[in-house]
Specification:
single chain; globular; binds cytidine-5'-triphosphate; Spore Coat Polysaccharide Biosynthesis Protein SpsA, Chain A; binds magnesium ion; 7 helices
């Protein structure tokens, strides 16, 4: 069973505001994406990274696409041997091999198994006018992360949609759900944060020092 890791790392990192792409920002002495690649290598036979144009290194560093899921699709196209796919963002450097392994094990009997955390804030839905339309039932809400592990055939079918549909998807599991796939949640440790804004780098550094 070929387990292939895919790291979408082709984003520009607009919200981080670094001079170059986010995946290459130094974090504890190495490019940010290397932390995710290392955690995946501990579990996967091969790791394919989708990188910004100009950073390609065949066969395992391929050009990303115009959206996150388009980057995942391009990387998956480079790994036709994959039977199980572990998708993990370059933006989550604190992922552990243990979490990756738990997601792979949770794939038994479903199409996807994804890292997630129970929501701790109350979540409200509002219109453009910022008036609250309703309050959601927090006890049933999960904030979804990566790793997201899929049966490769299900993910390939889910990604076989037009660029606008890919661009509208904020995670790959939603695309698998859209073709009727079943997805299981795997509770992730609190440390598995995403680097989005500059303060996240500071928090991630502190978390890694403490672990
Ligand atoms: N990503 C990608 N290809 C894109 C856009 C995003 O591979 N066209 C990747 C990013 O490199 C990142 C992950 O998807 O590892 C999650 O995206 P996000 O955190 O939004 O990163 P960026 O899109 O780079 O940041 P921003 O939205 O602030 O520009
Ligand atoms: Mg983005």
């Amino acid at each position: 069973m070929a387990v292939v890791g895919i790291v979408p790392a082709a984003g520009s990192g607009t919200r981080l505001g670094a001079p170059g792409p986010k995946a290459f920002v130094p974090f504890r002495g190495r490019p940010l994406l290397e932390w995710s690649v290392d955690a995946l290598r501990a579990v996967c036979e091969r790791v394919v990274v989708a990188v910004p144009a100009g950073h390609e290194q065949p066969p395992d560093r391929v050009t990303g696409g115009p959206s996150r899921s388009a980057s995942v699709r391009r990387a998956l196209e480079a790994a036709p041997e994959a039977r199980v796919v572990v998708v993990h963002d370059a933006a989550r450097p604190l992922v552990t091999p243990d979490l990756v392994r738990r997601c792979v094990e949770a794939l038994e009997g479903v199409d996807g198994a994804i890292a997630a955390a129970p929501v701790t804030d109350t979540v409200k839905e509002a219109g453009d006018d910022q008036l609250v339309a309703r309050t959601l039932d927090r006890s049933r809400l999960w904030a979804v992360q990566t790793p997201q592990v899929f049966r490769a055939d299900a993910l390939r079918r889910a990604l076989d949609v037009d660029d606008a549909t890919l661009a509208a998807a904020t995670d790959d599991a939603a695309l698998v759900e859209a073709i009727g796939g079943t997805i299981r949640l795997v509770e992730a440790p609190q440390e598995n944060i995403k680097i989005t804004r500059p303060a996240d780098l500071v928090i991630a550094d502190v978390l890694m020092s403490a672990s």
